[in-house]
Design goal:
- With 195 residues, the protein is an alpha+beta fold.
- The protein is 23% helix and 27% strand.
- The chain contains three helices and six strands.
- It has a six-stranded antiparallel beta sheet with strand order 1-6-5-4-3-2, covered by helices on one side.
- Helix 1 crosses helix 3.
- The longest helix is centred in the last third of the chain and has 31 residues.
- The radius of gyration is 15 Å and the shape is globular.
- 44% of the residues are buried.
């Protein structure tokens, strides 16, 4: 299901490395240098994993600030978090999400309710987990930043999906989720580089 280039999104988000395919469009191919991953290893196996990465021409602290500014996500991506959300462990994150990605507010959104499980400013990593019952969908999204050799920022996102419902998610919205992971990485890159 990775024929479109890079990975997946869902009721959570996060990622890891990069997937390249011969038929991927230029927007789906993100340069990856020799910078080692800053993502922690997955803590469980799932039926599928969504991931994306992109090198951003901006300092790591600027990208970190944009990544954690949940109320402003709608300025650079098709997620609409509540205005009063702060990235702290144990807090809930509520978003309205378009899957597939779209900036058209006339298209219905999917409500997403997550629990922020890790905020690691010293490592430039943040994670959240799905609040659905784990037997149905266990999903953990990690996002991480690291500095490349040429002082740009590598953004990585990985989400592992497990549980009985993960197979249905993959079968019914797997391709749009792939598009959403790519759209989020592209949106973060474009917004950070132009603001």
């Amino acid at each position: 299901m990775f024929s479109r280039g890079i990975a997946v999104l869902l009721t959570s988000w996060l990622g890891q490395s990069l997937v390249l395919t011969a038929n991927a469009s230029p927007a789906q191919i993100f340069a990856r240098d020799d910078t080692p991953t800053n993502l922690p290893p997955p803590t469980y196996n799932g039926s599928f994993t969504g991931h994306a990465s992109v090198v951003i021409d901006a300092p790591i602290d600027k990208v970190w600030d944009v990544l954690l500014d949940f109320p402003k996500y709608s300025e650079w991506y098709n997620k609409k978090p509540l205005a009063n959300q702060t990235a702290v462990e144990g807090a809930y994150l509520v978003m309205q999400v378009h899957i597939p990605p779209s900036t058209n507010d006339a298209i219905p959104t999917i409500p997403v309710f997550e629990l922020i499980s890790a905020v690691q400013p010293n490592l430039h990593r943040v994670a959240w987990v799905s609040t659905l019952p784990e037997w149905f969908v266990h999903a953990e999204r990690w996002q991480a930043l690291s500095t490349t050799a040429d002082n740009r920022t590598l953004y990585e996102s990985r989400e592992v999906f497990a549980g009985a419902g993960a197979w249905a998610i993959k079968a019914f919205i797997g391709d749009p989720l792939e598009d959403s992971f790519v759209a989020q990485a592209e949106g973060l890159k474009n917004y950070t580089e132009t603001h």
